[in-house]
C-alpha cells in the first residue's frame, strides 16, 4: 500500500520507459529554474502563455477535421440553425474532456495510453488499444478522403480520388521532416493551417451572409426533432474524438515542467487551460461558419439530404458562385487545410497510442510509417470501392462520424478513472464537483450511443445470422463499458507505483 507521502505526489515516469518527448525536444519555459516566485502570487505572463501555446491548437485540429466539416454541413443543410446549441454544448464538453487529459499529462508526466497499460489487466489494456486504433483508423479514413476530395476539387477533377489518397499519405514524411526542426516549428505550421481554414470559411460566411438573429436563436434555444437525431449524434461524435484524448495528454509534455515543485505544475495547468479554451473557441467559430453557410443556402431545399463533402463545393458554387473568387476553390482550400493538418495530427496520435499501450521503443520514422500504413491501406480500399457514385462516400463519412461516438467511452472512462485517483494524480486529482460533471458528460455520451445502437437494430439488422452476430457484439460492447465503470468505482484497489529515480526528490513543496 502507498504511504501517505506517496499519496501526495502523482505517479511519475520511469526513466527506462518509452516517453512522449525526450528532454532535448522539450520547450524551455522562461523562469522554470527560478524560485523567486515560489508560493507567492505569480502575475500573469503573456510571454509564458506564448511559450505554453501550441499543444491546445494541435489538439483543436481534431475539432476541425473533414469529419467535423461533414457533420457541420449536414447539420446545417438538414437541421438549419437548430443544432448550433448542440455544437456549442459539444465543444464545451470537449473542452472539459481535453482539460482533464491535459491535467493527467502535466501532473503525472505520462500520457493516457501509458497509464492505461499500468492501470488495467493485460487483456483489458489490449481491448482498449484495439478500440483506440479502430477509432483512429476511422478518423484517419475521413481525414485522408477529405484531403483527396479537396485535391480533386483544386485540380478541377484531374487528380482522381485514389491518387489524392496516395498524395495525402505522404504527409507522414512531411511530419517527420518538420519534427526534426523542433516542436515550435511544427506548431507554427499548424497555426498557419488553422488560419487558412479560418480565412477560407470566414470568406464563405461573408458570401452567404446568414441571419445573425437565426444564429443567435440557434445557439440559445435548444431544439431537437426525430428527423435531426442522426445529425445530432454526428455532431457530438465528431467533436469529442477518442484519439484526441490520448493525443492531448501527450502533447502537454512537450514543455519542460519541474514536477518537484507543485506551483510549477499549477502554473502549467493554468496556462494550458487558457490556451485550450482559446483554441476551442476558434474551432467553434470555424464550425459555426460552415454550419450556418449550409443552413442559409440549403436548409429546406430538395438538395439538403444529398449534400456531403463530395458535392458540397459544386452546390456552393451554384449557390454563391458570383463572388470575386470562386467559392468552390475557397471550400477546397479550407477542406485541404483541414485534411492535411488532421492527418498529420492523426499520425502523431497513432505514435503515442501504439507506443504507450505496447511500450514500444521504435525510431520515430518507423513508428510513423507503421501508424500511417494502418490507416492508408483501408483508406485506399474505401476510395476505390465507394467512389463509384456521388453520395456513397458521404454515407461512409456519416457512419464514420457515428463510429467515433461509439468509441468515446473507451477513452473517456479510463481518463475519468485515472484523474480521480490519488495514487496517480496526487494532490492534482479532480474534486467531487468536477468529477460529478465529468461523469454526467460521460453518461450523456453513453446514452447517445445506446440510442444509436437501438436505431441500428431497428433499421439495419435483418436475418438470423446477422442479428445474432450484432447482438453478441453489442453485449460485449455494453459488458466492457460496465467493466470499465465498475473498475473506476474501485477507489481503494492497489496500483503498481513506479519507483522514483534515485537522487531525485519528487515531493511537492
UniProtKB/TrEMBL annotation:
This is Putative natural resistance-associated macrophage protein. Its main location: membrane. Coiled coil: none annotated. The keyword Aminoacyl-tRNA synthetase does not apply. Pfam families: Nramp. It comes from the Eukaryota. Keywords: Membrane, Transmembrane, Transmembrane helix. HAMAP family: NRAMP. PANTHER family: METAL TRANSPORTER NRAMP3, SOLUTE CARRIER PROTEIN FAMILY 11 MEMBER. InterPro entries: NRAMP_fam. The keyword Transmembrane applies. GO terms for biological process: defense response to bacterium; iron ion transmembrane transport; positive regulation of reactive oxygen species metabolic process. One of its GO terms (cellular component) is vacuolar membrane. One of its GO terms (molecular function) is manganese ion transmembrane transporter activity. It comes from Tripterygium wilfordii. The chain crosses the membrane at residues 49-66, 78-100, 120-139, 159-177, 189-206, 232-251, 272-295, 328-353, 365-386, 398-420, 432-453, 465-485. It is found in: Membrane. It is a multi-pass membrane protein. Belongs to the NRAMP (TC 2.A.55) family.
Amino acid at each position: 500500500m502507498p504511504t501517505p507521502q506517496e499519496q501526495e505526489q502523482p505517479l511519475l515516469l520511469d526513466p527506462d520507459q518509452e516517453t512522449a518527448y525526450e528532454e532535448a525536444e522539450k520547450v524551455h519555459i522562461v523562469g522554470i529554474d527560478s524560485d523567486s516566485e515560489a508560493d507567492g502570487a505569480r502575475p500573469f505572463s503573456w510571454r509564458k502563455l506564448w511559450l505554453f501555446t501550441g499543444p491546445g491548437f494541435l489538439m483543436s485540429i481534431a475539432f476541425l477535421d473533414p469529419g467535423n466539416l461533414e457533420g457541420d454541413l449536414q447539420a446545417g443543410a438538414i437541421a438549419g440553425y437548430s443544432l448550433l446549441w448542440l455544437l456549442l454544448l459539444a465543444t464545451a464538453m470537449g473542452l472539459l474532456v481535453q482539460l482533464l487529459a491535459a491535467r493527467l499529462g502535466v501532473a503525472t508526466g505520462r500520457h493516457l495510453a501509458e497509464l492505461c497499460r499500468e492501470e488495467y489487466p493485460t487483456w483489458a489494456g489490449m481491448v482498449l488499444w484495439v478500440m483506440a486504433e479502430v477509432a483512429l483508423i476511422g478518423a484517419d479514413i475521413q481525414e485522408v478522403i477529405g484531403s483527396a476530395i479537396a485535391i480533386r476539387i483544386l485540380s478541377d477533377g484531374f487528380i482522381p480520388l485514389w491518387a489524392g489518397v496516395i498524395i495525402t499519405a505522404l504527409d507522414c514524411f512531411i511530419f517527420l521532416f518538420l519534427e526534426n526542426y523542433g516542436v515550435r516549428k511544427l506548431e507554427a505550421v499548424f497555426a498557419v493551417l488553422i488560419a487558412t481554414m479560418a480565412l477560407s470559411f470566414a470568406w464563405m460566411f461573408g458570401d452567404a451572409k446568414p441571419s445573425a438573429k437565426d444564429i443567435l436563436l440557434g445557439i440559445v434555444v435548444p431544439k431537437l426533432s426525430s428527423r435531426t437525431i442522426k445529425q445530432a449524434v454526428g455532431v457530438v461524435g465528431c467533436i469529442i474524438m477518442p484519439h484526441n484524448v490520448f493525443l492531448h495528454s501527450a502533447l502537454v509534455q512537450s514543455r519542460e515542467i519541474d514536477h518537484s515543485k507543485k506551483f510549477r505544475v499549477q502554473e502549467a495547468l493554468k496556462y494550458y487551460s487558457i490556451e485550450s479554451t482559446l483554441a476551442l473557441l476558434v474551432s467553434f467559430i470555424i464550425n459555426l461558419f460552415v454550419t450556418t453557410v449550409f443552413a442559409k443556402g440549403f436548409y429546406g431545399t430538395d438538395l439538403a439530404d444529398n449534400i456531403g463533402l463530395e458535392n458540397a463545393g459544386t452546390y456552393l458554387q451554384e449557390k454563391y458562385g458570383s463572388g470575386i473568387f470562386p467559392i468552390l476553390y475557397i471550400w477546397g482550400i479550407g477542406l485541404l487545410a483541414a485534411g492535411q493538418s488532421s492527418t498529420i495530427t492523426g499520425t502523431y496520435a497513432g505514435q503515442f497510442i501504439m507506443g504507450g499501450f505496447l511500450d514500444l521503443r521504435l525510431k520515430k520514422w518507423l513508428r510513423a510509417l507503421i501508424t500511417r500504413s494502418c490507416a492508408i491501406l483501408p483508406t485506399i480500399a474505401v476510395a476505390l470501392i465507394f467512389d463509384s457514385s456521388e453520395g456513397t462516400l458521404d454515407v461512409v463519412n456519416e457512419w464514420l462520424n457515428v463510429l467515433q461516438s461509439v468509441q468515446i467511452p473507451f477513452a473517456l472512462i479510463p481518463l475519468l478513472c485515472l484523474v480521480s485517483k490519488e495514487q496517480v494524480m496526487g494532490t492534482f486529482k479532480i474534486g467531487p464537483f468536477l468529477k460529478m460533471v465529468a461523469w454526467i458528460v460521460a453518461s450523456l455520451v453513453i446514452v447517445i450511443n445506446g440510442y444509436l445502437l437501438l436505431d441500428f437494430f431497428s433499421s439495419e439488422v435483418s436475418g438470423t445470422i446477422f442479428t445474432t452476430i450484432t447482438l453478441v457484439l453489442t453485449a460485449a460492447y455494453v459488458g466492457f463499458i460496465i467493466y470499465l465503470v465498475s473498475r473506476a468505482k474501485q477507489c481503494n484497489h492497489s496500483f503498481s507505483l513506479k519507483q522514483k529515480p534515485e537522487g531525485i526528490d519528487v515531493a511537492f513543496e
